[in-house]
Amino acid sequence: MRILIANPNTTEAVTRRLVETAAPAVAAGTELVGATAPRGVPYIASRAEAQIGGAVLLEMLCERIGTFDAAVVAAFGDPGLGGARELLDVPVVGLAEAAMASALMLGRRFAVVTFAVALEAWYAETIEAYALATRSAGVFCADRPFTDLEGVREEMADHLVALAGRAVAAGADTVILGGAPLAGLAARVHDRIPVPAVDPVVAAVKQAEALVALGVRKPVAGTFRRPPPKRSTGLADALARRIGENAP
Amino acid sequence: MRILIANPNTTEAVTRRLVETAAPAVAAGTELVGATAPRGVPYIASRAEAQIGGAVLLEMLCERIGTFDAAVVAAFGDPGLGGARELLDVPVVGLAEAAMASALMLGRRFAVVTFAVALEAWYAETIEAYALATRSAGVFCADRPFTDLEGVREEMADHLVALAGRAVAAGADTVILGGAPLAGLAARVHDRIPVPAVDPVVAAVKQAEALVALGVRKPVAGTFRRPPPKRSTGLADALARRIGENAP
Amino acid sequence: MRILIANPNTTEAVTRRLVETAAPAVAAGTELVGATAPRGVPYIASRAEAQIGGAVLLEMLCERIGTFDAAVVAAFGDPGLGGARELLDVPVVGLAEAAMASALMLGRRFAVVTFAVALEAWYAETIEAYALATRSAGVFCADRPFTDLEGVREEMADHLVALAGRAVAAGADTVILGGAPLAGLAARVHDRIPVPAVDPVVAAVKQAEALVALGVRKPVAGTFRRPPPKRSTGLADALARRIGENAP
Amino acid sequence: MRILIANPNTTEAVTRRLVETAAPAVAAGTELVGATAPRGVPYIASRAEAQIGGAVLLEMLCERIGTFDAAVVAAFGDPGLGGARELLDVPVVGLAEAAMASALMLGRRFAVVTFAVALEAWYAETIEAYALATRSAGVFCADRPFTDLEGVREEMADHLVALAGRAVAAGADTVILGGAPLAGLAARVHDRIPVPAVDPVVAAVKQAEALVALGVRKPVAGTFRRPPPKRSTGLADALARRIGENAP
Amino acid sequence: MRILIANPNTTEAVTRRLVETAAPAVAAGTELVGATAPRGVPYIASRAEAQIGGAVLLEMLCERIGTFDAAVVAAFGDPGLGGARELLDVPVVGLAEAAMASALMLGRRFAVVTFAVALEAWYAETIEAYALATRSAGVFCADRPFTDLEGVREEMADHLVALAGRAVAAGADTVILGGAPLAGLAARVHDRIPVPAVDPVVAAVKQAEALVALGVRKPVAGTFRRPPPKRSTGLADALARRIGENAP
Amino acid sequence: MRILIANPNTTEAVTRRLVETAAPAVAAGTELVGATAPRGVPYIASRAEAQIGGAVLLEMLCERIGTFDAAVVAAFGDPGLGGARELLDVPVVGLAEAAMASALMLGRRFAVVTFAVALEAWYAETIEAYALATRSAGVFCADRPFTDLEGVREEMADHLVALAGRAVAAGADTVILGGAPLAGLAARVHDRIPVPAVDPVVAAVKQAEALVALGVRKPVAGTFRRPPPKRSTGLADALARRIGENAP
């Protein structure tokens, strides 16, 4: 099985880190392939950037149709996930969604701990969009600037552990270390956090494997069937083709 | 006051109809200007199309910054609205949002009545995204195909009136005739619907006027302040410039 | 268009202030007329007082039927609003309702900031009654006594600005300055509050204008149609007449 | 212990029926006293009528302060209950509230079955106001006119039993026969309804007894403490006196 | 009327205290009988212990069928309540459920104040299971160890009063002193708590009386009818018999 | 990795079927071991039976501590799951919980389709207990009796497919075939259901694998840490020992 890790951010180093973090967790026979957004921002942190990044993600996926058995939307916040699920015939999961689904089986309430205040609104709206606010203990954001995106994981490690402690005091049974640049952090600090710590990309590849193992079909009814074909103007070729074609 | 009616669909005839429908409702001194998406689909009807259309909308708005006092996202479902509100310094409202806000003052529950089943999921998720499901009596969709987008308003009028009746029987105190191509229908059929019928584009321009009259400022705190400036790659010029610049 | 600003409190100075605050915001052709409760309390601040004031409001409105095109229930908390909407054939909006509807288009969560602790329960229940608690960041009340009702706006200004700051820190994207005696404060302090500040009476007249512009009809079905006629005993003449008559 | 059954409707026959229905259910030593609204409508069935009736109820209670140990607001929908609870020093319960509280202990979801469509909106809003919608299977209303209020209980009995059956099919574990004129019906038909049938006035007097037995105090904090004293104009003497006096 | 107070904990002293606390509150003619779990833990404080204790409770009740007119599940958290309500033909109420139902009639939000942090999760989930979280101001737990279960009521009294004060500051209109070992405390401290204090076992016996007075029948439809008879293996005799027999 | 499939029902044939259904889906290196309840009922279908079965499950798990890396509570409805998660140091997942978590990634709303009306209440309460009602389109139950438990899967196949169709019409994006005796059905009928069909035991083993792959620790804080040790009376040896011992 081949899982595409599609990063709607433009930072290739983060894509590599996501693949490296997830690799040890996959089953024998699962191959991970990374892809990085050809345009957009280094890391998505606002509604505007998610709107743009999600549209780019759809192009990335459509260009690669037929080369993967499942896909991961590799930005916490899952930009473009709903549209991707409509357009593709294979399972697609998001980092945020997969981490939360896993966290539901580890405790009553989960907290999302992340590295920048700017992410708070987007993450909180993601939780609400999935109708999981009742299961959430909140989004806990580092309150200080970081030096560079690739180093934020190491630079912030102690601070994020402290934030996780605050999240637990506020009622969290589980801590999700959200934000693609934090991939790999959970394994490094999980003995310093008193509750289960979830690494979203690990959760996502395992959830993708699970959906493939379930053998689920592409819906031909319901809200995630392929939308009716539609002509378009000025869109990227692969995306336009996919939008324009009839479901088989 | 100049209000930009920004249509994230590519159908210019719909943009014209929106402006014509709203024109008689505005106050003396309000000018309406239409804009139509330069790329995308003729009418957005799925999550994927909304993802794309919302990104195009951000470009359209950024290209016109400085030429309007308020903007209307002129597709029911409001693609890109959150991001637009972050990026712009003037009020932005969506057709769906404005219609629902108005409907809240006309009764306990509103229904959305529209012309295609394909729109159901997107509209329902929009209502949920605004946390207004408790105030909704549901989305009621025509169950038959239509001939062409520009004529759907006339072709479907009788059927939509019948659907509105069903919505009222299901508990609706108000009916929103959702979908940009239906602009102007409410005025034509409101005496055949036993409860208030809301035309979203009329609601939207009036809500835009109201926000301007309130004299509200651009937030410099909270989740709709301008996001921190960020470099980007490959985005449309005006959009890249706006994302990259410091808030004044 | 003539809008009646019906104050269910007995303080005429507040009625005058409401009219003066709203006047600059209305469209050309809109006329504002104030009315003050002939009996009741100087300002409503409890459930009991709202129960009484709302009943008086119904009398005030019925006595003036035919002289206005829309009405504003001019106490934040909207006493009697539901009943007024049943009995009248023209749109009726409440200060609280209109301010919240406007705030929905300015951010994710709004806070209500007000001048007396005694108001907290009533305001909080109003938000819940409109099913908008998910969109609320709370009610923030001044924790100190004020000297006199007419001067509370000036006396409390600094304190309310500070409270607004606390509301923003608690997650508010928008601040509603609630309580009729605060009318006009938003314009004076909005540059000291880092998010949009909503003046309820301005919101209310603009929402009333919007509903008239929408051309909505009096419902003859749904829960806000005129209740069946009923004989009564001992009620004020105009109210008894309205309750007793058939809808046209 | 003396319990006042305060009927905010003007129909004395209903007051008598309420007392007669509840009498066999009270404990030794409990005395029931009825009171009927001196003005208002024969039976409250709309928001407007509830607004008025609730204000009259406050007068009725204040005029009788000191003569009862607990009070029942004897119209399903509980007009004026919140205000009464603020103003009085003894427990006050409503027919709707007490019936629902009892129903919570008889099953997962309760339905309200009643005799007139006109009551639907008010009853549904009452359930929502108590935040019990999740526990409700809906309000089921007779869809036909009745001849006279005093005979509706007998005239509608068969139809209401059939409605109760529909409510059970829709998921109700318990049926509340709502509406003061139906007092006494539950005992007559409970063997024809396959789930527990709750008579609101019986529930209410038992809940009043329970609150007295609990020995609960008048709050001096929280939202049901006595509101601060306030001068008023033109209100009924006893009510004005109560609103104007300091809590002891 | 005979009410069985069935304690799913193994501590007989607590059973005695429950009976003694409730005795003065019951009506003439009501007899209270205690029963203590023959196996299990001294006091239930976790989900695991509630799972076990609830199963023992079902045995206790089935062994006594025919000897009582109503039963009280006498551990706050109500282990086994749903199953008991299915299996028995007479009303069954839980301490938590009854206390909350009573509290609903005393204010907007109730708080549960209790003697051990270990109880927090179970109590919070109980509130959620009853869909009453909107009416709750939270669970407030003593943050210090206690010497012995029978003395915790006296030892903790001052601390619990202080916690109650904090609960009121956090928005509670009513305080429930939860946990069977605290039976009788409310009466001793209610003048030191500024809002009504509810003693769960008093609430429970009064609610049991109320349900008997309502004359409600055993459902033969809905989700609390007797489950279809089923053969079983290895269960306690009385329980196996009850599960195996047809409803009459 | 060894996963224990612990069936709280007494039917060994169902345990075998669960293992056989899940076996093809697990990763290389995962071993499945079944265990069947030594006492209880053939299949749990009511709250009472779940209360008992959940207590037996805790015994089953405690007797096998140290022999598995993760456990599955193998009855849809997940009896005893919360307690098991407290007591064990390894991940525990329930059939219902795992199926729903997977379904969250396949669409907006899921439906549970099952073979007996008796299961409806228990399943519906399970969905509510996980706070996932917003994501549910309902529980759809076969309305006819079945001949024997082991054959119900084949006997009911056509009827359940039809029910799934009804669920989709009612808004389900995904169908969960709930009830342990239906294990293996999804694979046989998934091409006759127009949306993804989830087999709970497949979901459960994959979720168990995912949690092990995540490397999550046993919490030492939050609500799923081991409860404080407690002496007990009369419980099964292994369970008593586990409850009585200190967490390491």
From TrEMBL, chains A, B, C, D, E, F:
Q: What does the record list as coiled-coil region(s)?
A: none
Q: Name one GO molecular function term.
A: amino-acid racemase activity
Alphabetized InterPro entries for the sequence = Asp/Glu/hydantoin_racemase, Hydantoin_racemase-like, Iso_Racemase_Enz_sf
The entry assigns this protein to a family as follows: Belongs to the HyuE racemase family.
Q: What is this protein called?
A: Asp/Glu/hydantoin racemase
Give the organism, scientific name.
Oharaeibacter diazotrophicus
